[in-house]
Amino acid sequence: MIRSRQLAYRYLAGPALQFPDLDLPQAGILLLHGPSGSGKSTWLALAAGLLRASGGQLQVAGQDLAALKSVAVDAWRARAIGFLPQRLHLSEALTVSGNLALAQWAAGVPEDRAAVSQVLGTLGLAALAHRRPTQLSGGQAQRVALARAVLLQPRVILADEPTASLDDAAAGTALQLLADTATRLGASLVIATHDARVAAALPGAQVCRLAGLPAAANGAVA
Amino acid sequence: MVAIAWRYLVARPLAAGLNLLLLTLALGSITFMLLVSTQLDQAFERDLAGIDVVVGAKGSPIQLILAGVFHIDVPPGNISLEAVRELQKDARIAQLIPISLGDTFRGFRIVGTTPAYAEHYAARLAQGTLWSAPMQAVVGNQVAANTGLAVGNSFIGTHGLGASGHEHGDDPYLVTGILAPCGCVLDRLVLTATESVWQVHEKATAVDDEDRKLLEAEREITLVLIRYNSPMAAVTFPRFVNTTTEMQAAAPAVEVTRLLRMVGVGTDVLRGFGAVLLLTAGLSVFIALWNAVRERRADLAMLRMLGAPPARVAGLVLCEALLLAGLAIVLGLAVGHGLAEVAGAWLQSERSLPLTGWIWLPAEWWVVALGLAVAALAAMLPALGAYRLDVTTLLHSRS
Hints:
A: 222 residues; alpha/beta; Rossmann fold; 5-stranded antiparallel beta sheet; disordered C terminus; B: 399 residues; alpha+beta; 2 domains; 16% strand; elongated
């Protein structure tokens, strides 16, 4: 469940961004559309609790983010958010299962090998558990990153440009996997993209268009 | 956390290896310095204890001390027994121990003296008894261990303090006792009665009985170790000896201080070298960690994204540095002790000062602390960088 009202963010030395209000039911799919600089990254950062809104309200997975202290927000993010970055940022120093265990360590939960192998199995990655990220194809690596994102069974999955470097067939597969995984977990799925193929592949998704236009100079809306 | 830090460390084997080497060398040389200087100081202090002044032939005072107290140099010459007897009447003297040098047994010095010499170092016998007649000898623990001499054995001394000299084949010594290890100079000495030394040499040089009587009248010893009655004597006694007799008096405390000041330049240089090495190692660790944090910025940001609080990410960097330091400390201590043991073995083969790597000095905890401190200091800025990492860069897909 994601709900925002008059959400705004002002960069220290930059424009103030004003975001459209939205209501996404739990397990719904949201596409954040917009050109570069329209605030997709900022919205993702706000939703993940990495940035603090300068105005308005934002509730993610039932949590009002303005109410969380900075220490608590890290713990909340670990539980509630699964993040699939565009450049996958798998650690080269670790194996596939090591990368997943790293997510458990980062979240401060005890290492759970069974959970790691279970999620790898679900995503068809069991055979690759002991490979290094350099030994994976692009599609495999993205699936590993997805496995890492959903390892702790988040309420919301944030995906940043998941189809950016994929051809049509691979993009379709990747989106299907993302949507299926989110559905299986009952998690809300947010995809930030400027790729028109995404909307075509996920017809049931709610679309939020970010205009990229700065709000009024004071950052508030009348 | 340790396991993950370890993974990151071994992911960059060259940098980690070089830093480990640098830190190990630095800590190793500091450990070695510490072991050597502490043990030499201790050896000097122990051997010097209770000896206020050494009187011997005129010459270099340092040489007299080194020869008479530490037995690592040749004495400047001999002094006549007559003069020593005169000296002994002096009221300022509490105790006078005669020392006669001249012969060795397999490199270990044979010292003609009185039982007071053994008592002075509170030496205990491991086996047998002290000598009771000339040509009986008590051997120090290291001598016994090295040469295999046992009570009841006899041996023949070699003339001179150097390696080559003729053997006094006619006058074998009989071993009556073996000293327990005292950790002092006695460990590497063969003790016998002063008369033994006279007997060996008079017999060797005298052509007939009459000649021997003549030699007996001119008997000499090498030097005497003196303890004063009162500290006041230190002011007047050495000057009295140096100006009114043919002998010189040298105060070990003064001479050793002078010697250590000269040697001290060397140890200071070594210490400085160790410090420079440590600084270099610290800088190198800093640069390596700094680069690692820069390279892994995305990895670390991902950790934040996965829910790790900033402190945990910074802790990971610190942990990596401390892991490296921990390894370097263990290796450095091993290298330092190993070097000290090698140096000790070499010194022992030279029958010189005792030195071992098989001890643990409380001061070595400072080496441990130093290694950890350097690593922590080097990790400070990189860890701070990791702490303050801007996670949103991860989201700027165009970057």
